[in-house]
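Incident log, structure service

09:12 report received: a user says their structure output differs between two submissions of the same chain.
09:20 pulled the input from the user's history:
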Amino acid sequence: MRTSRLLVGLAGLGLALTACGGVNDAGTDDAATDAATEASAPASDAPASEDGGGGGTVTVGGFNFPESTILGEIYAQALEGAGLEVNRQLDAGTREILLPEMQAGNVDIIPEYVGSLIATGYGETPETDPEAALEQAREVVSADDLALLEPAEAQDKNVFVSTTAWAEENGVTGLADLADAGDVTLAGGPECEDRETCFAGLSSVYGLDNVSFTTIQEKSPRLAALESDQVQMILLFSTDPVFEDGTLTILEDPENLSPPENVVPLVRQETLDASPEIEETLNEVSSMLTTEGLTSLNAQASQGEQPADIAAGWLEENMGG
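09:34 re-ran on a clean worker, output below:
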């Protein structure tokens, strides 16, 4: 499904970005994507300053899926509440696009995910223990003069999902069981195909040679393809609000193909040095973020609420506005 999408101009970055996948590979439904895009227009055309903090001005970036846009808005609004001026570059693209922009000094802050940062951002195999993975992530980003602040309890992991009916019919409870399930097609975002934490890992880690891949960008058509048996397995986020009625089954992943994915602020060290209030502010945000809370945020996005409004409501409820 390598469907193309409209290029979005990033003012101040000097880039045209193709919005073609999320940080954890999963796509999003049309309503949520539209809501995220409408609310992610840059607050200013000014680029990130060369000194990182810019005397109180920072650029917050985000990946091109609603959860990241909402988290970026939470970061941005919290920092504005702390007295900083914030440029927004949300819904901007994949990690493969945004991480080099951080390394170049064009983006100051991104809401990141520990395991995906290690695996996709730096090409290393993440540790399976959350604390060890965090220390590993801190080490790899430090070489680029980047820093990770305190992680949230909240995680959003890639999950491999089938219909409950298909799983029961084929005796599949986990990924290893797929070896005896005949021909299986996995649908996911385009980045999934080549990532070891996604489709590529089904072969290299689980030894599955009966699973093929097809690209379906958005969540809604991906779910439709699963329900109509066009595909037998899809990639979703663990915080997608679609698991409540029992019609979908998350397949067990005993080899930890999906690593620890705690949400954590990634910040340029120069920016932290110039604006030390960033650390206290975003650490407070992280201390309030839970996995259940992320699921609720995504549910609001799927109902068409604007990311800026969702973020403002979360801040009011958890940090007093």
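09:41 both user submissions now match this output. Likely a transient worker issue. Closing.
09:42 reviewer note: The domain at 158-250 is CATH 3.40.190.120 (D-Maltodextrin-Binding Protein; domain 2). The longest strand covers residues 85-93.
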